[in-house]
Amino acid sequence: VAEDRRLWFRETVRRLHDDIRGVAEGAPADYIPELANVEPDRFAIAAETIEGDHFSVGDCGHRFTIQSISKLLLYGLALETHGRDHVLERVGVAPTGDSFNAITLDEHGNRAPNPMVNAGAIAVTDLVEGDGLHERVATVRRMYEQYLGHQPEPDRAVWESEQATGHRNRAIAYLMLSRGIIADRVEETLDLYFAQCSVLVTTDDLAAIGATIANHGVNPRTGEQVVRPDVARDMLTVALTCGMYDYAGEWAFTVGIPAKSGVGGGILGIIPDVGGMATFSPRLDSHGNSIRGVRVFEELSDRFALHLFDPD
Ligand code: GLN
After folding, report:
1. Where does substrate bind (predicted)?
2. Where are the domains of the chain?
3. Is 193 marked active-site?
4. Which residue has a Cα nearest atom 6 of ligand 1?
5. Tens-digit pLDDT profile for residues 283-301
6. Which residue among 72, 108, 194, 297 has its CA within the 20 to 30 Å range from the CA of 12?
7. Among protein residues, the one whose CA lies closest to atom 4 of ligand 1
8. Can you say which residues are annotated as belonging to the binding site?
9. 260 given a catalytic annotation
10. Between 69-82 and 203-214, two packed helices, what is the crossing angle to 10 degrees?
């Protein structure tokens, strides 16, 4: 039966890739000027189980910037380094219903709403340890290396493009500085935030990252414990409730898989105790989520009963 299901899954993914590749709605993000230069019709689907069984279709080796999917990993790093209470004092866990780049804090104005929107991610980035940008970049590099199994590489053009134009993120960061949520090294923290968003990944990489989180923080390829199991659990919870921005409620309802999207066009989905699933297509909807990616996840969740609350 397991083998049948495996073959059925592969055949379905191939067919879905064929069916959905023609979807031409949406467009790549252009509020970061350099992102408008991506090839809009690249499309990939990848999956990796916690046993290391890997399967992918389409442009799965094509590299794109991880963008907001980094928020999930940085949140894990902050929890691992500082513990839950310290992080919760600065960043809440409530979904906002606002867009990912909203200039808002939580209802009391003392915390960022959640770590999956820009405010929360910048506050989490503030918690990255190290003396100066160079050391803090090294801390983030090590984290990526543990997930990827190789050195991360930034897309310098995207990094610089966001440094030059990321004024909205600056507004969010200075608002948080004024409320004492982050430390007085705002430009450095923003630079680090832009750097981690510009890291290049493939759809295959994302599926592997998902497999690590699904495996309670142990990278199945290396055997290394990247984050503690309790941290992986907290990452999964915020991914489910906040990972798809203001589409998170609908996503939890229809797809029911903890996930994180990025404006680079990637979506990372995590099926606990099973593995990671990822899509890449840079045509985005109004929430900033990949249109083809959302379609793929909806179909696969439905056909393979992957919703968390589906009966076994
Ligand atoms: N770097 C992007 C930004 O801060 C990430 C946003 C995203 O992927 N939603 O605007």
Report:
1. 68, 118, 162, 169, 193, 245, 263
2. 2-67+199-303, 70-196
3. yes
4. 68
5. 999 999 999 999 999 999 9
6. 72
7. 118
8. 68, 118, 162, 169, 193, 245, 263
9. no
10. 40
Q: Which amino acid is at 91?
A: V
What is residue 201's three-state secondary structure?
Answer: strand
**Catalytic member of 13, 128, 238, 263:** 263
- The atom of ligand 1 lying closest to the CA of 101 is 10
Q: Are 2-67+199-303 and 70-196 the same fold in CATH?
A: yes
The verdict on whether 71 is a catalytic residue reads yes
List the catalytic residue out of 75, 144, 147, 193. Answer: 193
Flag residues of the chain having pLDDT under 50: none
Q: Using the mean position of ligand 1's atoms as its centre, give its distance from the Cα of residue 74 in Å.
A: 14
**Would you say 29 and 284 are in contact if contact means Cβ atoms under 8 Å apart?**
yes
Contacts of 174 (CB under 8 A, 6+ apart): 186
Residues sharing a CB contact under 8 Å with residue 264, sequence separation 6 or more, in sequence order: 29, 35, 38, 64, 65, 66, 67, 69, 282
Distance CA 75, CA 17 (A): 31
Instruction: Say what the pLDDT of residue 124 is.
Output: 98
| pLDDT value of position 168 | 97
3-state secondary structure of 45: strand
Ligand 1 nearest atom to the CA of residue 197, by list position: 1
Q: Is the ipTM of this complex over 0.90?
A: yes
| Rounded Cα gap, residues 261 and 252, in angstroms | 13
Q: Are 33 and 161 in contact (CB under 8 A)?
A: yes
What ranges in the chain are assigned the alpha helix state H?
Answer: 2-20, 69-82, 84-88, 118-126, 132-148, 156-165, 167-178, 186-197, 203-214, 229-242, 248-254, 291-303
Q: What is the CATH number of domain 70-196?
A: 3.40.710.10
Please report, in range form, the residues annotated as the binding site for substrate.
68, 118, 162, 169, 193, 245, 263
Q: Is the pTM of this model over 0.90?
A: yes
> Closest Cα partner for 236 from 218, 216, 262, 221?
216
* pLDDT number for residue 107: 87
Ligand 1 touching residue 67 (CB < 6 A): yes
CATH class as words, domain 2-67+199-303: alpha beta
